[in-house]
Amino acid sequence: MHRLAITTVFLASTASAHANPVHGKLELPTTLPERPPPSVRGFVERVENPKKPIQGISVTPYLLVVLENDTSKADSPGQVKWELAGDSFTKPVLGAPVGAQVVVKNTSHVARTLVAVEDAKLIGNGLINPKVGEKSFTVSDAKVYTITDKDAPHLVGKVVVVASPYIANVSPEGKFELDAPEGSYKVRVFYKDHWLDQAESVTVVAKGKTEPTIKITSLAAPAAEKKP
Amino acid sequence: MFWSKIWFFLIAVAAVVALSFALVMPRPAQTASRNEETRRLTVACGVVNIVLEADARNRVELAGKFARNEDVERELADASAAATLDEKRMKQVRTVGEKVMEGIKGKRNPEWAIMVDKKGRAVARIRVEDTEFGDTLAGRPLVDDALAGYLRDDIWMFGRTTFLVAASPVVKGTEYVGAVVLGHKIDTEFAKKIVGKSLLVELGFYLPKDTIAATSPAALEQAPMTSRIGTLLGPDLSSDCSNDNNKPMPLTAGSDSYTALVSRLPGEAGARGAYFSVFSKQTAEVGFWDTVSGVTKDDLGFGSFPWILVGGLFVVVLGVGIFLMLFESDRPLKRLTAEAVRLAKGEVERLAEDAHPGKFGSIARSVNIHIDKLGREAKSAKKDLDQLLGPAPEGSLGTIDLLATALPSVRPGGPAPAITPPPISEFKFGDSGAMAARPPLPPARPAARPGTPPPVAPPPAPKTTDLLGGGFESAAAPRPSIGTASTPPLTLDDDILGGVGATPTPGPLPSGPVDPYFKSVFDQFLAVKKSCNEPTAGLTYEKFSEKLVKNRDDLIAKTGCREVKFTVYIKEGKAALKATPVKDE
Asked: Which residue has the higher pLDDT, B391 or A144?
């Protein structure tokens, strides 16, 4: 049994006795996106190794599942922990309910200065010291923030702020786990930097596990939505 | 002189053109030097790019070899399988990596190595931050590509230090188990190695506000270079060196001037604005004197300088100039001088105007005009004297023949004794010898004694006789008579000279006082008449002296002369008498 990559959202108020487990699975499209060209190249073009074919791109770290309904708004969003492990965040895409406090912990040995591209004032100035340094910021609007370090442009993480506390990351096998009160929810799937065009819904039952299977037809951004 | 002037004009033009060339010539050389500098920098920039590419291939190949080490494959496979990494594993893997590093034999060994498991975690670092482990390197494009199976290179920055990095995937069996990253430092040694000794430029690697490494300690101003880098767009960095918008730019470093050409660096460092620059000291402005002072002995040797051509040209120019001067100046002047001498000698009466070209002809004409003017003045003076005294013998302007034409054309008694007028050939312009030969002027007679004749000895020639010379002393050639060509002179009538048919009997001596000078002249005249077998009847001293006094007084009154000298001579076989006004000096 693979360990699921469950959400790191700590919802004090929603973690009530009424929460019911939801163990779902994403059926990913058979054709995954090709590996993009390198964002930066060296003096020479990259070459494939002669021993083994190039690995396909892994999409699951960039997927996020959110259950939403009219009553899903978190009364007390609490904190969301986010680990900066070196040259990347442990989760390249982080979900957070509106009003949550995002706490970034730098576990690498390099100091960083983070900034939100969409809102320069979102994160306070100053370095996040290596190993023990933390920096927190509160996300008050439902939107997607791009967090980066100007001194390390390759270091990019997305904070997806939603009006729901029921958020889960996806395991390499496409599975996700979260707890939600019984009820009917609309399932939203975020991939990399955009919401997918999903019209699925799931009903969380009062007793037992709810195991929805969400079929992802395409990872491409909907034409009408474009990028958030 | 026309061609001489043209010649000197041409020489002046040639000199000005040569000077202009001398002043302008350094400029094309300067331009050529700058063009050469531009070409050299462009070539060097391209070569640096090529060398960096070649170096990248070598580094990638080295990373591949490193990754194919079996121990490395095994250790990374084990690490990838582990949920967490600990220090023990780190040291174990580092030992393996260190051993591999030591086994690398090459001209340029990597500075450090990092071994990454398939999750992107740094399992061990060798020779750089070697106590650090467990952090995630995934996320860096180089590491992501290596974990995906690509071999590639990049440029990383650790603080202020920049490294050329290369990475290779580590494959164990059929599985990717991690990646190896090797780093080579960009430092002065590396920069020197790239330019070598053949590029003849300096090389520097820069960040927008920092120098990474350079072959020269010159602190080039970086703002212009950074600004230029900002204008370079497009993915093909290798074309930066030949980009039309990226020409070599002038820069300063302290008091020195440089020319630099910049090119972007690729990779992560390139994304942060890193670039390299090839530069060299600007060629100094070379002016005329700098050019001249730069001439060496070798430049002036026969092998490298056309001395024969220059010398030949000089001789030709000089020869043509001298020829034209001789032809147009010296020779005509000599000819004019010679003719002037002949004129002075009396061999010619006028200068031959047509024989002298140009200005010399003008001079000749001017002289002739003056001669004509003098002639007219002399004739005028002669005419005046003729009016006063009667016509003088030709060529004897100041001397009046008193008796020649007055005397009978045929007189009994035969020709006069050999007292003849001086030959014209003896006359000289300004002949000081002739002047010196003359006796000094007698003292001026008192005005109260107008009748007192001068001594018998010939008085000094009057001023006008300077033109005629002292021909009185000569008797070589008789002067032509003025008889028929002139109006009758002041005549000593037959009552003085005696009638043609009268018996030549000398009259009695005057009863009054006798002027010794007139008496002397009278005696000479009488003697000459007798010697010429002319009749002397009726020729009395009283009439003779009376006439002489009258004529002398008239002559003094009209000419303003001081004295009048009377000379007896023989003309055409007959006695004649001349009156010559004697003026003060």
From this structure: A144
B503 has a pLDDT exceeding 70: no
CB contact under 8 A, B271 and A86: no
Into how many domains does chain A fold? Answer: 2
Mapped onto helix, strand or coil, the DSSP state of residue B291 is helix
Give how far A78 is from chain B: nearest CA, Å: 27
Chain B residues within 8 A of A55 when measuring between CB atoms = 147-149, 176
Answer yes or no: is A223 within a domain: yes
Q: How many CB pairs under 8 A join A and B?
A: 111
| A121/B contact by beta carbon, under 8 A | no
Contacts of B130 in chain A (CB under 8 A): none
The pTM for the full model equals 0.63
CA distance B128 to A152: 19
Judge: A55–B136 Cβ closer than 8 Å, yes or no. no
Nearest to B248 by CA among B24, B33, B61: B33
* Cα-based angle A199, A203, A208 (whole degrees, multiple of 5): 145
- Structural domain span for residue A69: 1-29+59-73+165-228
In a domain, A43, yes or no: no
CATH top class, domain B68-185:
alpha beta
pLDDT digits (tens, 9 = 90+) for A97-142: 999 999 999 999 999 999 999 999 999 988 999 988 999 999 999 9
Which chain A residues have a beta carbon less than 8 Å from that of B148? 35, 54-55, 57
Domain boundary among A107, A128, A163: A163
Is A209 found in the same domain as A191? yes
What does chain B come to in residues? 585
Query: Within 13 Å of residue B498, how many CA atoms lie on the same side as its CB?
Result: 24
Dump pLDDT digits (tens) for B285-334.
777 777 788 788 888 888 888 899 999 999 999 999 899 888 888 888 88
* Dihedral of alpha carbons A156, A162, A165, A167, sign: negative
Query: Chain B residues with CB-CB distance to A under 8 A?
Result: 49, 52-53, 55-57, 60, 64, 120, 122, 129, 132, 135-143, 145, 147-155, 166, 168-169, 171, 174-176, 266-268, 270-272
A155 and A184 inside one domain: no
Same-domain pairing of A158 and A81: yes
Of the residues A39, A41, A43, the best mutation for testing chain B's interface (the one with the most B CB atoms within 10 Å of its CB) is A43
Domain boundary among A133, A163, A193: A163
Evaluate if residue B31 carries a pLDDT over 70.
yes
Answer whether A55 sits within 8 Å of B149, measured CB to CB.
yes
Assembly ipTM: 0.88
**Domain extents in chain B:** 68-185, 296-389, 390-582
Chain B residues with CB-CB distance to A153 below 8 A: 268, 271-272
**Are the beta carbons of A82 and A123 closer than 8 angstroms?**
no
B467 CB neighbour count, 10 Å cutoff? 17
Tokens describing residue B159: 């603080």
- The H or E element containing residue B154 is strand B150-158
Instruction: Give the 3-state secondary structure of residue B567.
Output: strand
To test the contact with chain A by mutation, choose from B145, B190, B194, B265 the residue with the greatest count of A C-beta atoms within 10 A, namely B145
A32 Cβ under 8 Å from any chain B Cβ: no
| CATH number where A127 lies | 2.60.40.420
